[in-house]
Write the structure tokens for this entry.
Amino acid sequence: MWTCDIKGCDRVAVRTRGEYVICGRHLCANHIARDFHTCPVWQDGEQYNVAARIAENEEITKLLASINVSALLSRASDLRNGIPCSLSETLQYDRSTRRTVMGGMNYHIGIRFEDGVVWLARIRRSNATSPPPDLRDYIIRSEVATLQFLGKTKVPVPKVFDYNVDPGNPVGLGYILMERVAGRSLEWALASTEARKKIMDQLADIYAELASFPFDTMGSLDQPGTDHIGPLARESLTDYADNRMLLLGPMRDSAEYLSAKVEFNIDMLMRGEVYAGREIDAFLVHKFLLDSIPALMLSHRHDDGKFYLRHADDNGDHILVDGEHNITGIIDWEWAYTESKSAAFRTPIMLLPVGEFYDGSNHTGEDELTFAAILEGKGHPELAAIVRNGRIFHFFEFCCGYDFADWEGFLGLFKGLREALGTDMGLDWEAWRQMALERYANDERLKRLLLR
């Protein structure tokens, strides 16, 4: 996607490395290795944290300075027939309140009208890990289209009032103007047993609602104002050739999607964009994933040839709740996509028993069993069965493209996947790696990697 910023180097840059945010550069695998061994900031945890805070301050200060506040407020006021409005808070970087106004990808500006109504302006952050502008704008349009579609359902989402991705618009940056939903982000780990049951009861209704809106293809909603499914709005699955964006999808077959996803990761590691220094291990893992797709498809027994909308990051903080644990809204739909029924309605990540999951356990957790029972009690036995038997999909998805920086976490997940598939069970990593090297010895791509 990017080339190395070091003068005289034309190698492809490695993707998704948070260290770039500090120096604002894109580096290839060779220069990452060089800088890591010579840069004291990368070696010292405290220095890194200080440098990261400074870099974030500079990023957000620059972002806020690019916004024409008068134009933003004027646009919001016009959309409400001239009702005056103002900023809820002064636009300045404040680390003490950052959690309430920004996430990893977006910054939110509160707009308060004189009658008490509050909107949010959602603006994409911009740093060295951000996608190119055309991909960024495609993801914004997809989020708008998704929220507009969900606005016609019973799923509680913020209403979209306006959006503009044209960088030449009066506001100065692309934005989405949306309703501010009351409530706070759910902290699942801190919720009591009764609170969890209440939330799962509401979540079961949301699952049932989404199950009543099938789509014919797999991909992302991509045209605001329509229910059209286009390519996947995912940075991690988007390629570039000759400065041209190459999106994945849409598709009509789950096996085709899984194969394309794994092959995409293999292509990136062959080009040096991912897994710098661990290319051989990553190749062996992804080659195994590719070979495992026919066995994985046997777990798609609940598929009906249709595809269903799924939130791409269901770890819990996408759910807003009030003080009584009523769900007030589901937010952050920017990477949403449609998937086959067996995969779309697997357990939300937040319900997984985290420790057991990363240890590779295939036993269904207590929260998963409770959620399945609630679905069954509401007359949705098929969705309940999907929840009870969805662990294999989680393992496969986590292992595909997993960051090897968390090596111990990966080993547990990979063990769990092999046990779920009934393949290469009982082997530790070194034994499996040696066997895989022999199994794939004739693969031409592996031969090239071994010669590097």
